[in-house]
């Protein structure tokens, strides 16, 4: 089942758009930097001073801004369509007429959406890394604590950071899947996911979160910044992990409960 | 078609292929299906007839497990259909069949076969494609298929499960006459192979051509059930006749005066050898047509033709579904 759900995903234009955007944006970013010969106004971003001299910095920069809007958007674009798209195409009733059972189909779908989410992050990071290497070249990285990281350590740090960004993205994907299952409406689910992100970011930036602020899903996207610190601050990283896990499991369970019961009327 | 009933049928002891017991589905206050009970015997080609919006599709969705009944139950081969396992012998589709347009016909079937737990049996994809005459177009994307091809692909996807019981919802909907003929021929062929078929339709002629038993539904309720002959009996009420007389005016007058006759000149009647406007239609009372003929003769009317009118299925249908 998972194989076919994944196959269905990669044959859809929407998936191509998502992965394509994840591949193009780092290249555009790098081109802009090379043309203007200056980075964005990112004085606080890690390694910003080495931006023009070390290709390893590129993926850090792209992860930093990508996790604000682009990656969440590309995630909900596909996750919000996972169930609703099949409803509007009339294929959900076709596939539910087979013997696989609703639970089996749901978890295959959830897994395929998870794979897509991880692929978006991997493509986004990988392309940034490759572009940085080709255009600027890699050098040992001057770490924030004064120590120097070898190229290998730098690459490992990049992938670890990307993995940390993927956690809240999976939570968001699960939430969009829940909306998809609950509304049977693709547009509503995608917009709903985007609204959630913008709303949480707004709450946080206006200082309305209060004591809950560190636990908002959107604030987990920045947890990887603690990974590049010296020494590493583990508390926000662990918090990012369990907050993301909570969103993921809660949304998935709710989505599943609705999916196995809901009448299919289209 | 009647012959197939002798092999299974709903005779005592035989487990029916499908049994609906008090099946009800409400959406808020609206009852789409209300207390519907019927039985489909093995080997039946069972027509499920009703106008659009009569609850046919909702019923089929409940049979296929897409919609949960508010009350009542669906039994398939004697077992309550509570999940996919009890529906292992059933396959079909409801309303316009949906396929993955960006995949080929063959890939759609492979995907659907993968969603069937059939043990080690490899799905007979090539065979079902040939059965529905799509083998030549199997490599094309489904979005390039005509409506008729999609309907045939839907039948192929149902046959892929090698079911004993086939549920087809308006299988000729949206097809041109050639496509309709092909699909009907296919249904006949499958019925000939011993499949039990549940065929919903709003086309009377289709049901008349294909089915040995019929249920008529309207507004979610069962209005009539049985063989076509039995339904005609239920719908007819009093026997009707077509009459041609030498003097239409005088004949009409005599009939109007007769206490036991109801004139039914609603629309032109067909009677071979006469013009439609010459034909009078009437329903005779419990005494039969004899006293009426005597009254006509006594009234100096010459009877040129008198033929029992067998109400056609369309009239029965309209009378059943509109006479609520």
Describe the structure.
The complex is a heterodimer of chains A (266) and B (324). Chain A has 266 residues and is mainly α. Chain A has one domain (2-261). Helix content of chain A is 67%, strand content 2%. Chain A has helices spanning 2-10, 13-36, 57-66, 70-79, 84-88, 91-96, 102-135, 151-183, 186-205, 234-261; strands at residues 141-142, 148-149. Chain A has a two-stranded antiparallel sheet. In chain A, α1 crosses α7 and α3 (57-66) packs across α7. Chain A is globular and about 60 Å long. By secondary structure, chain B is α/β, with parallel strands linked by helices. Chain B has 2 domains: 2-234, P-loop containing nucleotide triphosphate hydrolases (Rossmann fold); 237-322, Alpha-Beta Plaits, CATH 3.30.70. Chain B contains 10 helices and 14 strands. In chain B, the strands form 3 sheets. In chain B, strands 6-7-8-3-9-10 form a 6-stranded mixed sheet, with helices on both faces. In chain B, α3 (125-131) crosses α4 (147-159) and α7 (228-236) packs across α10 (313-322). The two termini of chain B are 31 Å apart. Chains A and B meet through α1 and α6 of A and β6, α2 and α4 of B.
